[in-house]
């Protein structure tokens, strides 16, 4: 089932998410729905806050080309233990912030600890594009967006576009949920 993706401006996107355990209701269905939602929106990663849930869960599928090994994983209660290497810029976007892409600096290698969908604990090193996607999704469960990493000037230049997204003045090929607007009295 495809879930609506929460748009920029919704408070859930700024929350530090809560860990879950094996008893989380309908977890396997949620994971499946998150992959369906991500694929429908042509994304490579999706975090639970982006579907309205403030829990420490995200999914990644970088759909690597033939020369690389495919990278499709579920991350539950993830913790980035280390980021190493020279930071490099990459033009990032976000399903919750459609039509905005900006260069973001991130380190190329990470060491991450997480549980998979079968509650197996992993600690592994990841590099390159998969590491970048993980860092982006990890930021979501920490209540951060890629726009938080931009300079004040860039944020100011994007302000009206971001406001339009939060008001629902955007068209996407996927279903979105927009923040409730306060009623004027």
* Shape, principal axes of CA atoms: globular
Q: What structural category arises from helix and sheet content?
A: alpha+beta
CATH fold assignment: Peptide Deformylase
Task: Provide the CATH top-level class.
Answer: Alpha Beta
Low-confidence stretches: none
* Portion in strands: 25-35%
Terminal Cα span = 38 Å
Largest sheet: 5 strands, antiparallel
Q: Level of helix content?
A: 10-25%
Mean pLDDT: 94
Number of helices: 3
Number of strands: 9
CATH superfamily: Peptide deformylase
Question: From N to C, what is the helix and strand string?
Answer: EHEEEEEEEHHE
Q: What is the name of the CATH architecture? A: Alpha-Beta Complex
Based on CA atoms alone, the radius of gyration comes out at 16 Å
Tally of individual domains: 1
Strand order of the largest sheet: 2-3-4-7-8
Plain-language structure description:
By secondary structure, the chain is of the alpha+beta class. It has one domain: Peptide Deformylase (Alpha-Beta Complex), CATH 3.90.45.10. The protein has helices spanning 27-40, 128-141, 152-166, and strands spanning 5-6, 45-47, 57-61, 72-84, 88-94, 97-106, 109-115, 121-127, 176-177. The strands form 3 sheets. It has a 5-stranded antiparallel sheet, sandwiched between helices. β7 and β8 form a beta hairpin. The longest helix has 15 residues, at 152-166. It catalyses: N-terminal N-formyl-L-methionyl-[peptide] + H2O = N-terminal L-methionyl-[peptide] + formate.
